[in-house]
Amino acid sequence: MAAPLTGSVHSFDVSTGVDGPGTRFVAFLAGCPLRCQYCHSPDTWFQRNGRPTTVDDLVTEIRRYERFIKVAGGGVTLSGGEPLQQPGFVRSVLTRCKELGLHTALDTSGFYGDRADDALLDAVDLVLLDIKSGDEDTYHAVTGTGRLEPTVRFAHRLAERGIPIWVRFVLVPGLTDDPANVEAVADIVAGLPTVERVEVLPFHRLGAAKYAALGINFPLAGTEPPGSELIDRVRGRFRARGLAAY
User: Fold this and answer.
1) Which distant-in-sequence residues (6+ apart) come within 8 Å of 30 by Cβ?
2) DSSP strand E in 172-220: where?
């Protein structure tokens, strides 16, 4: 008999209006290949930081909230870390959730989008896609280890399959706010017909305490969050392309 499929799960939570529509059970998987300067969860970077969890164990936990999230018009979101670092586990969990009649969402940078096979995408109702930059140089400056092209390729694959996308773009003064970079992100997003909304997320320093606890330098410790004028300007650039920006 084959051993149960096991993943590394850092934690889970129940949230409303943040990680997809309605009230949702959100599982944060451990492990991520990127080292984004603004990451607020450095404790999820390594799979060893998570708890070994079988598919059955996680689905059992989800079922404790099943009635509640259905009544609240929600579902299940797999986040991270980077969930596509564990594609087999993600595929199995999402497939089981679909069998339960639950709405499913995948929160990903898209950097490992090629690891998502058709069966995994068949089990996804919504992708929360973090587009970190519109040009390669800025993308590398943000992530330290990544490239933009895999995310763009994954985004077009989602659109071709008709999968709804909510784009997330983190606005960091002095890092991602250059008008040319914002326009480049808007160019990418405007070419994706299944994008339902763009969330412009203001940078914050709420994760700084985690860096201190882990003895890790927080690269943006001296960076102030963006002001309302900058936020409005950036959201306006997306709206000018006919996109719903929040």
Assistant:
1) 8, 9, 10, 44, 46, 47, 48, 49, 50, 80, 81
2) 195-202
> Cα–Cα–Cα angle for 78, 81, 85, nearest 5°?
80
The answer to whether the beta carbons of residues 5 and 54 sit under 8 Å apart is yes
Q: Is the pTM for the entire model greater than 0.70? A: yes
* CA–CA distances in Å: residue 165 to residues 18, 65, 91, 216, 221: 14, 25, 18, 33, 31
The strands making up 51-54's β-sheet, listed across from edge to edge, are 51-54, 6-16, 23-29, 75-79, 103-108, 126-130, 165-171, 195-202
Tokens at 227, concatenated? 């002001």
* Residue 42 per-residue DSSP state: G
E-strand stretches of 66-221: 75-79, 103-108, 126-130, 165-171, 195-202
Q: Could you tell me whether strands 51-54 and 6-16 are parallel, antiparallel, or unpaired per DSSP bridges?
A: antiparallel
Q: pLDDT digit string (tens) for 40-88? A: 999 999 999 999 999 999 999 999 999 999 999 999 999 999 999 999 9
Which run of H or of E encompasses 187?
helix 179-190
Within 109-245, strands assigned E span 126-130, 165-171, 195-202
Q: CA 198 from chain center: how many Å?
A: 13
- Sequence-distant (6+) residues with CB within 8 A of 63 are 100
Non-local CB neighbours of 200 within 8 Å, separated by 6+ positions:
169, 171, 231, 234, 235, 238, 245, 246
